[in-house]
Design goal:
The chain is mainly α and 195 residues long. The chain has helices at 3-30, 34-38, 52-60, 63-94, 100-110, 119-128, 136-158, 163-171, 176-187, 189-194. The chain has 2 domains: 3-60; 63-194, Orthogonal Bundle (MetI-like fold).
C-alpha cells in the first residue's frame, strides 16, 4: 500500500469516527439513568439498558403532537410559498408591465430584512389580531420570510424559458392560467424543488 493510500485511509477513518461517535454517544446516553450520566464516565456503556427512557420522552414530551404540529405548519407554509412565489415570478417575468422591476425590487428588499428585527412588531400584531399562540402566528412569518428568496430563485429560472413555448400555447387556445399550470410549472420543477 502506497503512503498516499494509507494517508487517505487514515483520513477517512478519522472522519468516519468523528461523524459516528456523536451518534453512538447520543444513543448510549439515551439508555442510561441520571446517575450514570452524571458520573462523568463518557465512554462507559449503560449498566442497564433503559429503553423506557424513549417511552417517557415520547409520552411526557408530547412528541407526536409536536410532530403533527410541525408537519402541519411546514406543509402549509411550503405549499403557500411555492404557489405564491410561482405566480408572482410568472407575472414578473412573463408579463410586460410598467412596474414589474419595481415589484421584483420590493421582493429583493425583503431578503435584506433581518428576522430578529420583526419579532417585537409581529408579537404586537398577532396579539392584537388574537392569533398569538396559534399555528397562524408561525405560518404567516414563515411565508413572508421565504417568499423573497423563492421569488428570486423562480424568477431567475423563468426568465430562461423561451417565450415561443407560450406563444404556441396561445395559438392553440390556452389562456394564462392554462399556460401557468400546464407549461411553466412542469418546466420549473427543478427550481421549485430548490425552493
Amino acid at each position: 500500500m502506497t503512503p498516499g493510500k494509507l494517508a487517505a485511509y487514515v483520513l477517512f477513518a478519522v472522519l468516519f469516527l468523528t461523524q459516528i461517535y456523536p451518534l453512538f454517544w447520543l444513543l448510549t446516553y439515551s439508555l442510561k439513568n441520571n446517575d450514570e450520566i452524571l458520573s462523568g464516565k463518557f465512554f462507559a456503556m449503560p449498566k442497564h439498558w433503559l429503553w423506557e427512557n424513549y417511552k417517557a420522552a415520547i409520552d411526557g414530551g408530547h412528541y407526536v403532537q409536536y410532530l403533527l404540529n410541525s408537519l402541519k405548519v411546514t406543509s402549509i407554509t411550503m405549499i403557500s410559498v411555492i404557489l405564491l412565489a410561482g405566480m408572482v415570478s410568472f407575472a414578473i417575468t412573463r408579463f410586460r408591465f410598467k412596474y414589474g422591476n419595481l415589484i421584483m425590487l420590493v421582493f429583493l428588499m425583503g431578503m435584506m430584512i433581518p428576522l430578529q428585527s420583526t419579532l417585537l412588531p409581529l408579537m404586537i400584531i398577532f396579539k392584537n389580531a388574537h392569533i398569538l399562540n396559534t399555528h397562524l402566528s408561525l405560518i404567516f412569518p414563515y411565508i413572508a420570510f421565504q417568499l423573497p428568496i423563492a421569488v428570486f430563485i423562480l424568477s431567475g429560472f423563468m426568465r430562461s424559458i423561451p417565450h415561443e413555448i407560450e406563444e404556441s400555447a396561445v395559438m392553440d387556445g390556452a389562456n394564462v392560467f392554462r399556460i401557468f399550470i400546464s407549461i411553466i410549472i412542469p418546466v420549473s420543477i427543478p427550481p421549485i424543488m430548490t425552493v
